[in-house]
């Protein structure tokens, strides 16, 4: 009460003194915070004023008086020193060059407070938060920047922070943006994208297994975490989609599981007849016995076993088997002719150019 009177009587230092005493007695006293803040402003102690107002907002986050006072304070500071923000940024840069990250953070945070819409300050602060490994804060600052204005580096660094927070789907999105915006030139972003994706897809598969799958500079790689016994299953993975590559497309394979269906007769051709007894015995011993199974209705698909035939039937072949679906034969014709076929007006041309090369 006395402090308020001092304030009205313009005895600002006395008002501040009383306010401080009240604040010391009870830290939850919002009136004391406001009193101290107002008095500090009048005394030109802006940093102190900010501290008191902030303490007040902790007690009551949307206090109308404090919000108003903060706005006024901002104007007062700017009026007093229109270059203050620039100076703050300079000071923050200096701190960074001396590796004084926490100090840089305090300074740049003041600039952000003065102009929360300034995207440069946000980016700057996110960088400092990144150096301090405060990943969630990195994202909070970058999030304020509208998507269309995020530069490739922002997407990339955000992606890295999201990786640390292990939010893989978001991280992939951010890293892909970084790669796209750099026109594919940012190899680090592209590499990190694969790294997150491989970890996201393979970690659940290898959780209880003695291996981990990682993306390296050579591509996906499986690393053993302990010695693995011969014949031990370390990971089971089913592909979403599977097809033979252009190079291997003429090698007979199971349509369902892709196991090779190549026989010694196909592989060696006429040369097989010229082999001596020992060589033939060796082939007999080492070459897996291949019993090709066909779709009994169309003969278009080959399988390694009846099990695979059934699986293929249940999963897709019953929909495209020409016996079930007369249009299905067009698809198999296309496969047989390497993607070529007749157009409606009778031209022979490549109709399916989607080969993976
Ligand atoms: Zn098979
Ligand atoms: Zn069929």
UniProtKB/TrEMBL annotation:
InterPro entries: SET_dom_sf, TPR-like_helical_dom_sf, TPR_rpt, Znf_MYND
Highest taxon in the source lineage: Eukaryota
GO annotation, biological process: methylation; negative regulation of gene expression, epigenetic
Gene3D superfamilies in the record: 6.10.140.2220, SET domain, Tetratricopeptide repeat domain
Domain MYND-type positions: 254-321
Keywords of the record: Metal-binding, Methyltransferase, S-adenosyl-L-methionine, Transferase, Zinc, Zinc-finger
MF GO annotations: histone H4K20 methyltransferase activity; zinc ion binding
Protein name per its UniProtKB record: SET and MYND domain-containing protein 5
Species the sequence originates in: Elysia marginata
Lineage: Eukaryota, Metazoa, Spiralia, Lophotrochozoa, Mollusca
């Amino acid at each position: 009460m006395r402090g308020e009177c001092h304030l009205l009587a313009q005895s600002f230092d006395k008002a501040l003194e009383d306010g401080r005493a009240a604040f010391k007695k009870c830290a939850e006293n919002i009136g004391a915070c406001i009193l101290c803040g107002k008095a500090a402003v009048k005394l030109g102690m802006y940093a102190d004023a900010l501290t008191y107002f902030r303490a007040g907002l902790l007690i009551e986050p949307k206090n109308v008086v404090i919000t108003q006072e903060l706005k006024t304070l901002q104007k007062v500071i700017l009026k007093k020193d229109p270059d203050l923000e620039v100076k703050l940024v300079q000071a923050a840069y200096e701190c960074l060059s001396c590796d004084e990250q926490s100090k840089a953070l305090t300074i740049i945070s003041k600039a952000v407070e003065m102009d929360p819409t300034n995207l440069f300050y946000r980016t700057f602060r996110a960088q400092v938060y990144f150096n301090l490994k405060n990943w969630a804060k990195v994202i909070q600052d970058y999030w304020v920047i509208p998507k269309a204005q995020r530069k490739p580096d922002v997407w990339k660094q955000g992606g890295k922070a999201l990786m640390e927070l292990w939010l893989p789907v978001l991280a992939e999105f951010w890293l892909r943006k970084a790669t796209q915006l750099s026109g594919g030139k940012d190899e680090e972003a592209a590499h990190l994208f694969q790294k997150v994706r491989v970890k996201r897809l393979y970690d659940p598969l290898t959780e209880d297994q003695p291996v981990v799958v990682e993306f390296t500079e050579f591509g996906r790689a499986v690393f053993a975490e302990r010695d693995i016994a011969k014949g031990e299953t370390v990971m089971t993975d089913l592909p979403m989609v599977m097809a033979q590559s252009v190079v291997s497309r003429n090698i007979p394979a199971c349509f369902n599981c892709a196991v090779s269906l190549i026989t010694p007769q196909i592989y060696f051709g006429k040369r097989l007849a010229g082999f001596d007894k020992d060589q033939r015995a060796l082939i007999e011993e080492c070459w897996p016995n291949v019993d090709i199974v066909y779709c009994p209705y169309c003969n278009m698909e080959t399988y390694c076993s009846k099990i695979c035939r059934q699986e293929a039937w249940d999963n897709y072949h019953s929909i495209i088997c020409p016996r079930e679906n007369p249009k299905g034969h067009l698809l198999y014709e296309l496969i047989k002719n390497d993607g070529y076929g007749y157009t409606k007006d009778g031209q022979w041309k490549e109709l399916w150019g989607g080969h993976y090369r």
